[in-house]
Specification:
This protein has 194 residues and is an alpha+beta fold. It is 17% helix and 18% strand. The strands form three sheets. The chain has a three-stranded antiparallel beta sheet with strand order 1-2-3, with helices on one face. Strands 4-8-7 form a three-stranded antiparallel beta sheet, with helices on one face. It is globular.
Length: 194
């Protein structure tokens, strides 16, 4: 039997250097390094094989995040990729286009000046290509248009009832698929812990 493996670590100086200017910025609103944690864990891919992944999240929620992903792993739910958004220069659009599952990224909500909960490490996006954000006049990422029919269930899709929503609800997080403007790939906890 294959086991779920996860390690929670502080953000080491070498990683701080990689993140600075990409996901982390010298802005007084950006979390201090000690408020963030790196989570390294394995996950099932669309190919049915095990893959290694990394997420940066708020240190205060790191153990809860591990608990949710352990349940997701047990359900063998496939995740395309799980890379720190620094691999995409902190660019959310590029990360979504790559179908990347990501966490911390100091940025505003698309189209407004309000900081996203990703800015505090209290939001995670999973498989954006199978789980679109549906705005007034756009679908993001654009490739997710093929997944607008939520009744046509395919691998990697987040639906209710389902193991991923149940795993995040078990730790007190909400799902963007329940919102008026659906954000099917998005999970978050409010308010951001201090």
């Amino acid at each position: 039997m294959v086991s779920f493996l996860a390690v929670v670590q502080p953000i080491a100086p070498a990683l701080q250097a990689e993140m600075t200017g990409a996901s982390w910025h010298p802005d007084p609103r950006c979390p201090a390094w000690r408020e963030l944690a790196l989570v390294r864990m394995n996950h099932w891919g669309f190919d049915g094989a095990l893959h290694d992944g990394e997420l940066v999240v708020a240190a205060a929620v790191a153990e809860d995040v591990v608990s949710a992903f352990e349940r997701i792993f047990a359900a063998r739910f496939p995740i395309e990729r799980m890379e720190r958004i620094d691999a995409y220069g902190g660019d959310d659009e590029r990360s979504m286009a790559a179908n990347n599952t990501s966490g911390f990224n100091f940025r505003t909500i698309a189209g407004v000046e309000t900081l996203s909960l990703h800015s505090f490490g209290t939001a995670i996006d999973i498989n954006p290509a199978q789980n679109p954000y549906i705005g007034r006049e756009r679908v993001s990422p654009a490739s997710a248009v093929a997944y607008l029919d939520r009744d046509n269930l395919r691998p990697g899709m987040l639906v209710r009832p389902g193991p991923v929503i149940e795993a995040f609800e078990a730790i007190g997080w909400e799902w963007g698929g329940d919102w008026r403007r659906q954000d099917y790939h998005h999970f978050a906890v409010r308010p951001a812990p201090t």
